Prior knowledge:
This is Rubrerythrin. The chain is mostly helical. 79% of the residues lie in helices and 0% in strands. The protein contains seven helices and no strands. It is globular and about 50 Å long.
Amino acid sequence: MEFHHLLKRIVQDGNTHAKWLNTLSFMENAGARKISKCEHPTLVSQIQLKHAAEEHRHAYYLKKQIGKINPELCKTYESTELLAPIATSQYLHSLDIKACRYLQKAFNLDKTDIKYAAYLFVTYAIEVRADELYPVYQEALTEASSKIMVKSIILEEEGHLEEMINQLNEFSPDWKDHADHILTIEKELHEEWMNAVTEEVAQLHYA
């Protein structure tokens, strides 16, 4: 199912839409926690703190939007309150592990430095994805005349991507070649996640 069509179906059903918002919130929260986990014990930049804070805020904002559908829905991140919970929880985790393996070989880094490299490249890949995902979601929301909006997240994610590129330029002159490899890994994992979400949404609508 084409992504825009999938989102149109999700937005049409209140329970499914609440689960989708909760799933995005879960992923933003997981991203924020991974950024914090990658911090050096003392050498923490302001920009890294900013990213973690903003991803946490996105998680909160998306969670809060569920109240516009039904305040009683999706109060936790229990698997029954997420779309494709297994694929959802594996997506970022697998990306992190596979990116670390690749970066370890590519740059021969120690344990502390690999964490920072993973923060740069994984966050970059996620921001590239977010720049594609959220505008399509907003389009589906606008078409459905939904009270829910993600325009503020779109603006911040665009800023994040620019900041990640600046940091990657400082990290390595040939970062783009390595980033392309990470993007290929992310694309495969994203497709697995989307296939799982599509399958579940089709089952929900069929039921």
